[in-house]
TrEMBL record:
This is FAD-dependent monooxygenase. Residues 394-417 have a biased composition (Gly residues). The lineage of its organism: Bacteria, Bacillati, Actinomycetota, Actinomycetes, Streptosporangiales. The keyword Flavoprotein applies. Its cofactor is FAD. GO terms for molecular function: monooxygenase activity. PANTHER family: BINDING MONOOXYGENASE, PUTATIVE (JCVI)-RELATED (PTHR43004:SF19), TRK SYSTEM POTASSIUM UPTAKE PROTEIN (PTHR43004).
Amino acid sequence: MLIVGAGPVGLMLACELGLAGIRPIVLEKRPEPGDLPKANGLGGQIIDLLDHRGLLERFSAGSPFSGRAPGFPFGSVPLRFAGLDDIPLRLLMIQQPRLERLLTERAAELGVEIRRGQEVVSLAQDENGVTLGIEPQGGGRREVRARYVVGCDGGRSRLRELAGVGFPGTTDDEVLRLGHFAADVHLFESPQVSGLQPGWNQMPTGRVLLTSLQQGVVIAGVREKGTYSDGPVKLEEFRAAVRRVVGEDLPLGEPIWLSSTVSQARLAERYREGRVFLAGDAAHLFPAGGSALNVGMTDAANLAWKLAAGLRGRGPEWLLDTYESERRPVAERAMIQTRAQAALDRAEGADGEALRALLTEVFAYEQAARHLAAMLQGSDTRYARYGPDSGLGREAGQGPDSGQGPDTGQGSEGGGHSLVGRFVPDLALADGRRVAELMRRARPVLLDLGGGGTVPDDCADWIDVVRARAEDPPAGTLLIRPDGYVAWAGTDGLARAAEEWFGRASSHA
Ligand SMILES: Cc1cc2nc3c(=O)[nH]c(=O)nc-3n(C[C@H](O)[C@H](O)[C@H](O)COP(=O)(O)OP(=O)(O)OC[C@H]3O[C@@H](n4cnc5c(N)ncnc54)[C@H](O)[C@@H]3O)c2cc1C
């Protein structure tokens, strides 16, 4: 099992596979772990998943913020959640290099091998496996072979290109130049920035970001129309962009790091090509912030247990196909809200002002705020029921029956229960545990809350059975997938569901 790319998504996938007892090899072209401060944080269901794995405490140590979101900058329109109980959206401020370092540590604890300085340059596959050509740093060329390969190699994915999968979408005509500066001045007290607010500032020829997430470091960004060109950004280039948009220099201090990027909205035509899968930025690029790591890292959790089942020869035939049919609609939905954020950001002139003013009013309604919070969290995701008799094929999960969007389903038994296909609620159990604590090992869990239920003998080795009590249980018994989604709820048909999802040996591997 090979993973290409040791970014957050490849590392998350490696950790999930490691938990499932698979020892993947991660091939990474960079010789050293990344130190680019790209993402400043995680938002959404990935935080619940880190909680499931017992990692949340470790990952949030020293974080400036971890918890339920007090608000969210939706495009340039603020969403405010103050006074609203149980807003689903969770945020964890963590810089990407630290996230990658912690995931690397965790992968090492789980016995994953990361081979750095190994650039993948070719791909060939047949019905039994995939052969990758690698150019190691220092020269030479060699080949490695595996039964499955996952391309977690970022937005410019070589794997995606080599597998012949298109990446249609749009590229913004604005370039964002971003920098971290050592600012020993009280920036916002300086007369030169007196007209600017913390956060994004709309100017006639572009936008300027000024914010700080840690003492002594100011993050500054300038967004303006222009053509993006690859390569390092020089301080003079950054200053010139500031002058063009603000009209004067800003007292930003010494640069720690400078970069430029351009927003793109792209979705891979397919997430799977034979034995090659795509995850994270390799599969989707969103044009506004806050969702990329959430969707990418939860892609990894969705795929890992299915691949592990395939590699063990016990996954049903259809299981690996559900990666795409479950995850692509999630990315499509994230695309809707991130495109809307980008549009709100960019709408210009009086029309743009009117749009933002009106939506500021609309977002003040509780239902609107909750709806958007659920969308950003990903808690409105509902996977369709699969299985040989479900009548759902590869396209299942898309369209009106996918359950994406507001919950309209009502509770009933079995596959029709309103929890089926949804992320399991973190119930408090009478013995003092939470459901999240049952998910540490990333194994399927049959949670008997008084409804009874047993798993078939041939599943007993890999499904954990937990009998517990909870006040007001949502169902008698829940069958929870390793990625935290409810596969079945109720009592009738549980054994069969367990066998369908997790039990059958197959020739698929
Ligand atoms: C300025 C900025 C701010 C951002 N802020 C946020 C944020 O706050 N929240 C958020 O969720 N997201 C944010 N993002 C997006 C986030 O950084 C990406 O979504 C994330 O890095 C994607 O992770 P990944 O593992 O899919 O890909 P990457 O992080 O791109 O990792 C891909 C890895 O694959 C390796 N690789 C590439 N090609 C090959 C090859 N041929 N062979 C071997 N290895 C290869 C690369 O070296 C790299 O290590 C931000 C992005 C930027 C640029």
